[in-house]
Amino acid sequence: MAGIRQRCGARTLMTLLACVARASALTASTPTISVIAEGPEYLVVHKPAGVPCHRRDDRPGILELVGGTDLKLCHRLDDGTSGCLVLAKGRRAAAAIGDAFAAKRVAKVYVGLTASRPSKKKGVIVGDMVRSRRSQWRLTRDSANPACTWLSRSIGLGPGEDPAARLLVARPLTGKTHQIRVAAKSIGAPLLGDGLYGGGKADRLYLHAAAIRIPDVGLDARASPDSGASFLSRRFADAWSAVDLEAELADDALPRAAREFLARQRVS
């Protein structure tokens, strides 16, 4: 009997040690989430690339990593996308921010890198998005419930050792899943590191939410990318310094087609 207790005790100890080791490994690999803006109704955090918005298996989601019992996720970023992510402080704030998103009174600017030359350097990319194969979405010529993206800049990075060739600046006027990734593919310039849409291999998905503005709650936040060899390169820094985020966020900087689209969306 004593031998049985001893064996069970050994197994219990081994299990406990394994759990401790696993917890230590998870703690060591847990990313730090930085707060980049805060107001009475919101937090804006810098979501790292590779961190999911919601828990996936053993990977904790943003709310778990940030902590706090009353924070609400106001929108989502793809796992591989980094940058500005808005959390509301409580239900009332979440409702107010949700209303702003629904009424298209939110301005967001993204920066991406591609290894390809796009078929257009700037323009409004619009069309319905439909499910395709392998969890992909694709853009169609229909416009019953269209995604609309304003591609404002395409800047060449010049020669370099990494595969990034151009910097793309985009402002999504709608909030569809994979919208900017699909828009980039539709103009022949899939984002670097976006294997799902033909962007090839890289150390991360090169898409970053650089700025967000929600006038309803006085929110105005910016975040520069801080990971990925191509985002950290001198070539990117030189090109990125030419981008005026204040101008990119302004509605009056949108082309007529984009302003008319927003006006229709806000009415409906």
From TrEMBL:
KW Signal (keyword) present: yes
Keyword Signal tagged: yes
- The residue range of the signal peptide is 1-25
Where the record annotates domain Pseudouridine synthase RsuA/RluA-like, the positions are 42-183
Q: List the Gene3D superfamilies hit by this protein, alphabetically.
A: Pseudouridine synthase
Q: Which GO terms describe its molecular function?
A: pseudouridine synthase activity; RNA binding
What the record says about family reads: Belongs to the pseudouridine synthase RluA family.
Name used for this protein in its record: Pseudouridine synthase RsuA/RluA-like domain-containing protein
